[in-house]
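Standup, Tuesday
Yesterday: got the pipeline producing structure tokens again.
Today: sanity-check two examples.
Blockers: none.

Example 1:
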Amino acid sequence: MARVLIVEDSKVVQQVLRHLLTQKFAREFIKHVDFAWNYEQAQELLEQHTYDLALVDMTLPDCASGDAARLTIEHNVASVILTSSMDESQRQQMLELGVVDYVIKDNRDSYLYAVRLLTQLLRNKGLPVLVADDSQLSRQVLKQLLQRQLYHVIEAEDGEQALAILREDTSIKLLLCDYAMPKMDGFELVRAVRNHRGRDDLAIIGISGAGNNGLSAKFIKYGANDFLTKPFMNEEFHCRVLQTVEQLHLIEQIKATAERDYLTGMFNRRYLQEHGRRLFAKDKHAVTVALIDADNFKQINDQYGHQAGDSALRQLAQRLQQHLDEHIVARFGGEEFAVLAHCHDSAQLQQQLENVNDSLRDEPIELADSTHTLSVSIGLAAMNHHDFDACLSAADKALYRAKAQGKCQLVCE
């Protein structure tokens, strides 16, 4: 979690920023926020603490314009400027200072943008970015701009080297590639990359010198997310990169929402079935499925209410994750859960599943002002089925037998 310094002499602006920083999207990344009213306070705080980011007013009452930002940058703090006005001389001054970006203070939305910019920069901190360009000077310029946005920059001298790096390092989420490169040009690189990494996994920004209006369209058609023409303004570069990576993050959020159960945060039935079918197609002899059902769960809802029932399901989900963290655990529906394991020996999985009931007996779940001893019935189906759905069906039959034989037990097909 990050520590942020905000240097601002307006009480109203400070109040607005304090409120926005309490929002969930900001609290996820920012742990400590220190406010300074003037240059002197900022200097004292910088001597006391190490900061990840600074949001700095361009003009303060006790220093010359830009001095506060110069101070934070001298302390190696990535800095975003707040300014109430902007002309070309001020813009050049900020670029020379080496700030990440600037925000013009003209309405409440500008402060929201500033806080979102801070969180986006912190989210990107240390994220690997690949720059592919045969010009060492161009690579250095791009590297410097990207490092201001807190990225970890990796360099490639040509398309072939870039492709090899991307195949080896799947953690890279952004590629900036020049068009004119030896061995493999930008179009060929984008086309080759898209054969194994889609737009929702890796963002690509194509770059080329001015003079060919068709390059941008070709880059996009081959699979790039965006395009920049050299020479470009620093602000344009920062905005394009931030927006491209943010779009990638939003896609990840949408996918996560589609794959997760809203109540427990576990994977949902859809994810389990899709992943199970893919896994089964690769190695059907190593797929083991267990279905788990909470015994007498209706009694909890009837006695304590549905809110307590939801709490019980969340606690049960946590207990399952605790004992089965190396496997995929999903909420299958209602009070039923599923486990998907990739293993050639199901004996260890059986023991882990049996430990769940031991845990529930030793540590009852908490409901309202009391505790409740919950148990589960488990049906296990291991391997040797013609498809994944047949494996699920076998686990369901085994679960039915566990219920019929007295509950609180595991039955293997």
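Example 2:
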Amino acid sequence: MRAFILETIYELSKKPYQKWFKKQKAWDISVSNLLQLHPKNSLGFHLGCFLLKHDFSPQPKLEDHDVFHVLTNIGISVPEEIAMQYYLLGNGKRSIYLILVIFIGTLLYPDKIHLFRNTYIKGKSAYSFHQLNYKKLLHQPVHKLRTTFLISPLCK
């Protein structure tokens, strides 16, 4: 039931958020385009693999969100989505959407507070990476980005 509540809120808020709050342009890139990027250890290739694995397609103006999954190795379950917002909060990202997800998510998942705390700490210990233009970094190796910004992936 908790997951259903958050997933419903997300689906209802996604389109208005894309339209009114996300000012950057959509990447206009497909999963197959991403999978053709070289080298094979590039962010773009890994992003394509992530999207293919989960049967996702790039969401216009929200492409960075999936990049964060790739860089942090945080999964896509509802508690993990909340944890990623904690990671980004620790990294310095501030938005109404992020704060609402954290607030509602923490209320609905108090049993996951340890996960949320750990991901917040990981985000705080990384150099600020949440604001980068990832479309321009798609050819960069994932390992290089993680190392440069001290992004500590969530272990599974």
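Quick observation on example 2: The chain has a mean pLDDT of 91. The first helix runs from residue 2 to 20.
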